[in-house]
Amino acid sequence: MTRLIQLFIALVASGAMAAPPQVVVYPDGDDTDRPVSRAIDSGAFALPVSLDTATDVLRHIELRSSPVADELMLLLEDTTNLTRLRHYDGTSWSGDMTVHNDIGTGAARGFDAAYESLSGEGLVVYRRDGQTRVYFRTFDGSLSAQSEVNMGFSSTPDRVALAPNPDTDEILLIACDSASLRSVVWDGSSFSAATTLDSAFDGNALAWDAAWGPASGEAIVSWARDGDTSARYRTFDSGTWSGSLTGPALSERVERVIVAWDPSGSSDELLWVFGTTTALPPGDDDDDDDDDDDD
Known about the structure:
single chain; 0% helix; 295 residues; 24 strands; mainly beta
């Protein structure tokens, strides 16, 4: 069975260019272990560029754009659990850089990446097979040595994710295992002590999300436990977490949560999307390991 892999599109940020180019990365239709890149310029696709050093069938593709330079980070995970990074400098792609050779197979994607909003330095986080800690590397043209952060998990994390502050170099790292949901804050050079957001979290690994508001400077993490018919949430502001709060009540069990602030920075409006047992929003299909879709 062929696993559905979404197309990921990222704007290459450039204040000097009237129409910044776009880049699409996707698996080759005839050879799904080979990622293909295509630039979009003035509404037209350039010829595909094969990034042809893959080792096995691709499982996940993640593309992150720098807020301060014409560059991208591309992360690729294949079915051997090997995770690699490639860098796009606005013109061409670098060779492969190994993030880790075995991030394990969890209930959801076990890695993420983000750029610091002021420095433009990258941060890559990932789990490791059989380990309870979260590991990370910084990226500034090359990957740093591996470091780790102890978030207090008792089992290997199911999912890790990053949410950058659009106004500072802070980045939220959120992760869950089968028993808890936790967070640490990156300040541009190191992580804070861990905060347990929910010590009784037992929802699926896609039932939480995080975002940082550009207007308020406040972050939100929202999640649902197994069986919840309303999402829970906590906010983070000036180094302090709120207590656990409850969102609007729904008529069905919450299976997926997506949050996004107004990116214009002109308001504190929040888009809050819930997937229920009968209506799931689009997004990662990480928990659909037997996806039969071919397109």
